[in-house]
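PROTOCOL LOG
Step 1. Enter all chains and additional molecules of the complex.
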Amino acid sequence: MTRIRSLLSLAVLEIILAGLCIFLAAAAPNFLSAENLLNVLRNVSMQGLIALGMTLVIIAGEIDLSVGSMVAFSGCLTAYVAGALGSPGSGPGAVLAVSAAILTALLAGFASGALTGALRNRFGVPSFISTLALLTALSGAAELITNGFPLTPFPSWYNFIGGGYLFGIPFPALLFILAFAGTHLLMNYTAFGRAVYAVGGNAEAARLSAINVATVRITVLALTSTLAAASGVMQSSEIMSGTATTAKGWELDVIAAVIIGGTSLAGGVGRVWGTMVGVVFLGVIMNGMTLLNVSEYWQHVVRGGLILLAVLINRMERKGI
Amino acid sequence: MEPRPHTLETDRLRKEYPGTTALRDVSMRCEGGKIRALLGKNGAGKTTLVRLLGGAVQPTAGTILVDGTPVSLRSPREALERGIATVHQELSLIPGLSVAENIFLGRLPRRRGLIDWSGAARMAGTLLAELGLPLDVRVRAGSLGLAGQQMVEIAKAMSHAPAVLMLDEPTSALAGRETDMLFTLLRRLASQGVVILYITHRLEEIHRIADEASVLRNGDLVGTIPIREATPGAIAGMMFGEAPVHTRVQAVPVSGPPVMIVNGFTRGEAYRDVSFTLHRGEILGVAGVLGAGRTELLRGLFGADRHDSGTVTIGGRRIVPSSPSQMKKLGVVLAPEDRKAEGLIQILSTRININLAGFWPPSHHWITTAARERAVAFRYVSELDMALPSVDGPVSALSGGTQQKVVIAKWLETAPRVLLLDEPTRGIDIRAKQQVFKIIRDLSGRGISSVVVSSELEELMEVCHRILVLKKGRIAGEVSPRDTSLASLLGICME
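Step 2. Run joint prediction.
Step 3. Record the structure below.
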């Protein structure tokens, strides 16, 4: 009995997710179809990619509110650079131009996160504040680049990154799964992962235990920002344009998924696997409600309620109620 | 007319906790007009007596009398009503509120249901004027220095017009000049007939402030003597008893090769021009009163805090300590004073904490597994004789002594040359203390040197090969425990 109980408390979110899937399988006949499940995976993959990095950031006791703006900025930057370097086409010139554009966007993402980390280390600026500033600044920069209109310089093959399939699996979903495996291994089987937990658990004790706190913070923030930029590239590929108004409010969806997954905003506690479950959980709910023809307005209300409920259940489980 | 002096008496006051008697039949009498210092080492019963008189705990037996009347103090509030006010070591002011609000917190004067701010300011102003304190009652308490805040605490206590004022380590955070201001104020209060009970660790200041001193040891009141008789030797005899100190240091390896040479280490007023040589396997004690700069010095040597000038030579290389990870690589590590907040990461497991120092930058492997970490943890669990149910449980569940061993284990895994230990036995039980000493001695036998800071002089006498005395940030002397008595060591510290 106690074993069942401990198993139950260990996997409470997984059990709720399974229950939700069983309910949807019964209520919406095409929910369980391979096509629909792959669709769910594709829909969550871009936010999910960022959520993986955000898990590390939150475990380290930091936060990144700029990821939504980074998605938009990175998409616009990719479009801008690709357009400036070459014309739509399929020749080697176009491939080179698009590759350079993507690299530029990823580097910009890396730099943004590294800047947040440096401000945190050097001047003690809380990442909440600096990334709040970046949220506004990056959003404005995206508008500046595009002049308010979507940029569409992409060759048609570019759509593969955000909309293509490899081995029958949506390419973004494949990247997401790869990134999951990577971050999961990083957090569970590397010395660096342990250091992330230590810094979030007590940064001063970590420093006095000879852990280089500054590089840990910079690494997780830069990683997350880079993942947001990658997500922005995929997004621009999916919609085949650089659009400044895209991905508004993503930061909150991403943080919600991480928190649902059991990661503590106080730092030092959390699992990448939990975030994976949280991301899929949110995706299944949205998908289920769409299949059941729930109005979009209701979808938001229900989603908000479920986020609250999931966090409450996590809390109670941790307190042993 | 001179106000009649108040009195405070205890009659066979006794406090028992399960398995131990914290205070044994203490009978004493304090009179207003005189300042009484209360002395004793950690665990002697000072805190228990303060808590009993302050109404925080109730006695097992015995009576407390204020002005000759027996009183029962069931809560701090009741103690205040019966005329016993306490100023605690930790300041309890609310920094965002004004001085006047802090003094009258919870009982601000009202007029027609609203707070009478001008009345409160006037009353606070009158009170401070009576106490001779030149403070503006309108400024925020947080904008005052520590001394100013301490004054406000005293004013707050005095606003209850108490018969007895107890001060628990009031100068521990104060600078020299601020201490003078405090003493002047206490002198004035004493002359008004208030009983002043002054608890302190700083033996050197009792001659400046107290008229008489009471000494507690192991829960007993050893005695009360006039301050002119309180020589270091007399005080040491009363505090530590006549029991001989066990000097169990075997060989004296100060002749071994030097592992660390500290040269001209200086940081502002905290410590100045500290130089010494630590030999291989040597256990070097650092004695000194609170505020002598001991903790600051260790943190400076570990690179945890910046220092102004001075170098450390380790393994023939002359370096300037700049970060803990740099010093770890050179083999110099620190077990900090506050092990709960600085030594360990409480929410993580014992296993992770033992492996902590090798994680980032990684000292052995980039890849780690729970199994590998567990193997390391088990090795130290048996080597250091740790009592714990599971290495995967949270380190916060462990006793103070076991936590200290985890801190030491964490550093041993980095193969250090020098262990800097700041109050390694604070808050741990007697058995664990002996085990920690044994660990330090065993390490010495293996060639690992230690620098031990402790407020417990007899511990330093027991475990160290050599003891440096730090006074106001400077090295004031060096003694060998073999040919020095505890009393003369205490004397050097207090002079």
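Step 4. Note key features.
The radius of gyration of chain A is 20 Å.
The mean pLDDT of chain A is 91.
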